[in-house]
Design goal:
151 residues; single chain; elongated; 8 helices
Length: 151
């Protein structure tokens, strides 16, 4: 969303307040807020998405923001019906040590190939402290139904 969506209604409220109080200053400020909001929305619309190759290189170098960006792009690809692209980016983020990407990769593989294919990724995420993944390995959990396969 962003600041543009905040500035438009705030500018409207400021404009109404200016009219009610008969304040030219408030009305003038409201026009500035509206203009800034519209420009921010236009700029956001034409902003280029980050290049996954650049993010992957930065993630491999240890840039945490790049890892999160790569995961976000992967989840977007997944929601758009591009599971191969999502898997590729999640693997890169997981390789960089992102626990949430390990979990998401496990979920993607579970949907496509079943729980057995996802287990290594769920186990990796659980071993690094992912709370939901850890639940799968409790006694009676999805990957430890009889209690013989704990973390």
């Amino acid at each position: 969303m962003g600041l543009g969506f905040f500035l438009l209604p705030a500018g409207g409220a400021l404009s109404l307040t200016g009219v009610f109080l008969d304040s030219g200053t408030l009305i003038g400020l409201s026009w500035i807020m509206w203009l800034a909001g519209i420009l921010l929305l236009i700029a956001q619309r034409y902003r280029r998405p980050p290049d996954p190759r650049v993010l992957a290189a930065a993630a491999a170098a240890g840039d945490a923001r790049a890892v999160r960006g790569l995961r976000t792009l992967a989840l977007d690809a997944r929601s758009q019906g591009r599971p191969e692209a999502a898997e590729r980016m999640l693997r890169q983020a997981a390789k960089a040590g992102d626990v949430e990407s390990m979990w998401e990769l496990g979920r993607l593989l579970q949907e496509r190939e079943g729980l057995a294919a996802a287990e290594p990724w769920f186990r990796m995420a659980a071993g690094r402290g992912h709370t939901v993944a850890r639940r799968l390995f409790r006694a009676g959990g999805g990957l430890n139904p009889d209690g013989s396969s704990p973390l």
